[in-house]
Amino acid sequence: MTDETTIVPLLEPREGIPPVIEDRAGLAGAVRAFAAGTGPVAVDAERASGYRYSGRAYLVQLRRAGAGSALIDPVRCPDLSELDAALDGAEVVLHAASQDLPCLAELGFHPRELFDTELAGRLLGYERVGLGMMVENVLGFRLEKGHSAADWSTRPLPEDWLRYAALDVEVLVELRDVLHEELKASGKLEWAREEFAWVLAHKSPVPRSDPWRRTSGIHKVRSARGLAVVRELWTLRDALAREADLAPGRMLPDAAIITAAVELPRTTKALTDITPFTGRSARRHLREWLAAINTARALPESGLPQPSAPGDGPPPANRWMDRDPVAARRLAAARTVVAALADEHHMPTENLLQPDAVRRLTWEPPPVIDDGTVAARLRELGAREWQIGLTAHPVAKALARLETEGEV
């Protein structure tokens, strides 16, 4: 931990703010420079989350020894495949890689070797793993994070935003180097490599089934008819937001969908009594919103959604004792084991073993519980080999003990 009195504000990139690359000639120059550079390549991407529907990148930042830093406008330079080819074999350093890999892949940039500084921080037991806090605690520099939630689709990008963006990769490789040594010293380097490889292999997000069920506040909707309204309004909002490339919440807030599902307005007037429907974007589509509500109202009983999505895994853990007390005891035993192991290895429980894997294992355990069957089940559920090596035996032992004692 860095002493607060020794922390140095990082205010300017070492070589100044690089010019934004906006054409093929500039990109070709960056490709040559980074191909000639050495060592790992720090990469970051800025999106317009909360402003735009798409998750595309609106700025890509890179830094490498011997090449300096580069800022690339992917709106003007949407194909980074030549840069990707030039960096084949180089380790790419990202912070919270799973957030940036999909938008980088859209540009033709596909890292083959990864070091994720956020994930490394988690495995090492750092309590706060945001980039700013990691740089501060590990390197003793303070980053300005004031523009992290900015609308990066803005053009032209303000100079202070570009400074912020360049600084995000300024010391990322240095952070990687220190964390690499800490992973090595703690015996966790191979664990980290497995994690990084898993992140690369799963960089494409898996589409959610029934994504409308994640509407904030949906627990307030008590009827199947109300759930149908949520589904119809969510689906319409998603289509309209996609067409306008506007974040869905800016088109219509979740709270408006939930209120409409509870109140079931029948007229445009009743709809506009729900304040969020009077917003500029929402007001343009009042007839369509009302039509969606009427569609849900007209559905036959057989067309209404069930209270919970079928086949999407175990129920919420707080319902287990009522639904299956035996499974609830298995879950409690497994969680106790995983929490103790996580504490022993100084990392969050969710990084030692994914909570969903623990739930699924204990809700539907193997017919015969032993080290091999538990390990096989965890492997099916996506656990990495290092996780299985640490948890399969103690979890199997705990579950088997319940059986022996007659509690399951």
Automatic annotation (TrEMBL):
GO MF terms, alphabetically ordered: 3'-5' exonuclease activity; nucleic acid binding; nucleotide binding; ribonuclease D activity
Annotated stretches, region: Disordered: 299-321
EC number(s) given by UniProt: 3.1.13.5
Enzyme class: hydrolase
Signal peptide: none
Listed InterPro entries: 3'-5'_exonuclease_dom (IPR002562), Exo_C (IPR041605), HRDC-like_sf (IPR010997), HRDC_dom (IPR002121), HRDC_dom_sf (IPR044876), RNase_D-like (IPR051086), RNaseH-like_sf (IPR012337), RNaseH_sf (IPR036397)
GO BP terms, alphabetized: nucleobase-containing compound metabolic process
The UniProt record lists the keyword rRNA-binding: no
Keywords: Hydrolase
One Pfam family matching this protein: DNA_pol_A_exoN
Boundaries of every HRDC domain copy: 223-303
PANTHER family: RIBONUCLEASE D
Protein name: Ribonuclease D
Organism: Planomonospora venezuelensis
Lineage of origin: Bacteria, Bacillati, Actinomycetota, Actinomycetes, Streptosporangiales
